[in-house]
Design goal:
It is a single chain. By secondary structure, the chain is α/β, with parallel strands linked by helices. Helices cover about 65% and strands about 5% of the residues. It has 23 helices and 5 strands. A 5-stranded parallel β-sheet has the order 3-2-1-4-5. It is elongated, with a radius of gyration of 32 Å. The two termini are about 20 Å apart.
Length: about 600
């Protein structure tokens, strides 16, 4: 039953040789890997306006020069990540760059920040998408967490079905969003040019008495939340069709052009319309209503915007599993993240991402405003480290034309570092948890790495010296009575060795005596050892007996504990039995260096 449900939800298993068919072309990759960056136009301008409103309505004209400054930084980041793509075509982005050029600890800081950022991407995207729905249908406000969780679940299932299938489905709404925003911007620009906009927009260049450089920098850093997701393409190069690096670079360039146009278009319309931030309606919602009214086009734009905000999380679903795979390959994350699922994706990473982001949405009550500062800090730390790593790389290698590349990365590093510091200073009450969580993540990385190194050291052998030791075998069979299950187990044990002993634990002398009589009457050809348990425990007497056997035979024999177990026909029937065999096996696994085997007997009724 479970397998049938899995097949319906995820699809048929795919052969390993089908992996090449799961690679992405430029158009599908643009939809999957750019959805986070492109969707940020729905809240990037709004974050700038929220800060500027502290200086009053007349300060909103500053959103235009600030938006152009954000686009300047975007250009630097795109140029930088193009260099990263060609320098590190195996993917990994900031993690690989920092690990290679800045050392292990810095690399793990970048990797840990990216992992946290991807979890926050899913949480922020689902929360922002819910906000867009609530803008159109305010009555759903009390159900915002449930809506976000449903969308996270759907995205997780979609990505478990494989990269190509999810790309084919998700590409449609992404391109519909791009078309819808261009239609909105085009219509708004035409309306403005024809004098159809009569909103009281603040005068461009007007003097604002209480504006400060600090406030402008804070607004700039908040607007830079529109740059999240830019690094995803460089992280996911292995997902591209060959030539992977060239296709990734082309995809990054296309994303930059589209993002620049949409972001500045929304910022200009917000200024022309005199839009003010409203907790009940997003900036895009207000622009669409001012342009088209609350008609069909308004609801289409709001629906597509909500959808793309949800689907922005898919960028993280593409990049998180790959980054987790690289960290696991380097022995800093569990090896389970290296395993491909039935549909050839890194399913453990996909599931972990979905669960972690869902917990975050629940913890923050689906509040986008509370999550975005954490989100931005999580992404700008890797931005800064990636730029710094590339600076070190150019200084070490000094290839032809390296000074221009070094200058680009230097400007990018100083800018992203400044933005990170501004976020930390101005929104410390929101981001303080980063200073606790990131060190914990890095500590966990080091502990996992140490564990894997310790295991390797303990398991490693000298092949020219150490050889298998040939021993005999002693098999201990715990029995609860004389049954068909016990008979099958003893038969199997005797087929392996003549040195078999059955062990029975009784709770009183009369019970033990009855068992000895029945055993003698049955006479299976195996010696029975009876043990008395004064405290009604089965495990402890058996463990003491195994200790005795180990002490006497460990030099000459391998000791095997062969546990008889019957398997019920229906899963619920297991609850009707005490499962003492499971308890014994678990205890032996944790406390004894003996061979543990189970002989199953399947019940038919």
């Amino acid at each position: 039953m479970v397998n049938k449900i899995k097949r319906v939800l995820i699809g048929r298993p795919m052969k390993s040789k089908e992996i090449e068919g799961e690679k992405l072309g430029k158009l599908k990759a643009l939809a999957i890997l750019s959805s986070d960056a492109l969707s940020s136009v729905a809240y990037g301008t709004e974050q700038i306006l929220l800060v500027l409103m502290a200086a009053g309505f007349s300060a909103l004209w500053y959103s235009i020069p600030i938006s152009f400054a954000v686009l300047g930084l975007l250009l630097i980041l795109i140029l930088s990540y193009r260099q990263t793509i060609f320098s590190y075509p195996s993917g990994g982005g900031a993690y690989i760059v920092a690990m290679d050029n800045l050392g292990r600890s810095t690399g793990l800081l970048a990797g840990g920040s990216l992992l946290v950022d991807y979890i926050l991407t899913v949480a922020v995207s689902s929360s922002a998408g819910t906000d867009a729905i609530i803008s159109a249908f305010p009555g759903l406000y009390d159900h915002r967490v449930l809506i976000a969780l449903i969308m996270i679940t759907l995205l997780t299932l979609m990505n478990l079905r494989g990269v190509t299938e999810s790309a084919s489905v998700l590409a449609v709404p992404v391109y519909l969003f791009v078309i819808a925003i261009f239609v909105l911007i085009g219509t708004g620009v035409i309306k403005y040019a024809m004098g159809g906009i009569h909103a009281a927009a603040p005068e461009m260049g007007a003097t604002v008495s209480n504006i400060s450089l600090f406030l402008l920098l804070k607004a700039f850093s908040s607007g830079c939340s529109a740059l999240t997701g830019v690094e995803a393409v460089s992280n996911a190069i292995p997902n591209f069709k060959k030539p992977a690096a060239r296709n990734a670079a082309a995809t990054l360039a296309m994303m930059g052009i589209i993002l620049c146009t949409m972001f500045i278009g929304i910022s200009l319309l917000a200024y022309w319309y005199g839009i003010k931030p409203d907790p009940q309606a997003t900036v895009v919602s207000q622009i669409a209503e001012s342009t088209f009214g609350r008609g069909t086009l308004y609801y289409i734009i709001q629906g597509i915007t909500a959808l793309i905000l949800f689907l922005a999380a898919n960028t993280a679903y593409s990049a998180f599993p790959l980054l987790a795979f690289m960290l696991a390959k380097d022995k800093y994350m569990p090896h389970a993240f290296m395993v491909r699922g039935d549909r050839l994706g890194f399913s453990n990473g996909i599931i972990f991402l979905g669960v972690a982001s869902a917990l975050l949405v629940i913890g923050f009550g689906g509040n986008t405003e509370s999550l975005i500062p954490l989100y931005a800090v999580g992404v700008f730390i890797p931005f800064t480290l990636s730029q710094l790593g590339m600076m070190v790389r150019w200084l070490k290698l000094k290839p032809k034309g390296w000074m221009l590349r070094f200058a680009i990365n230097t400007v990018g590093m100083l800018t992203t570092l400044g933005i990170t510091l501004i976020f930390i200073i101005t929104k410390f009450s929101h981001v303080w948890v980063v200073f606790i969580f990131l060190p914990l993540v890095m500590f966990l990385f080091f502990q996992i790495h140490r564990h894997y190194l310790n295991i390797a050291q303990q398991l490693r052998i000298s092949m020219d010296v150490e050889k298998p030791v040939m021993k005999g075998s002693t098999i201990v069979v715990p029995v609860a009575g004389i049954t068909r299950v016990v008979m099958n187990s003893l038969g199997y044990a005797k087929s392996l060795t003549d040195n078999v002993v059955a062990v029975y634990v009784g709770f009183d002398d009369e019970e033990i005596k009855r068992m000895e009589q029945k055993w003698a009457e049955w006479n299976p050809g195996v010696r029975l050892i009876t043990l008395r348990s004064s405290f009604r425990s089965i495990v402890r007497p058996i463990m003491r007996f195994i200790d005795t056997v180990e002490w006497k035979t460990s030099e000459t024999d391998h000791i095997t504990v062969l546990i008889p177990q019957f398997i019920t026909r229906h899963w619920w029937q297991n609850m009707l039995h005490n499962q003492s065999s499971l308890v014994l096996r678990a205890y032996l696994y944790n406390h004894k260096d003996v061979v543990i085997a189970t002989v199953p007997f399947h019940l038919q009724k």
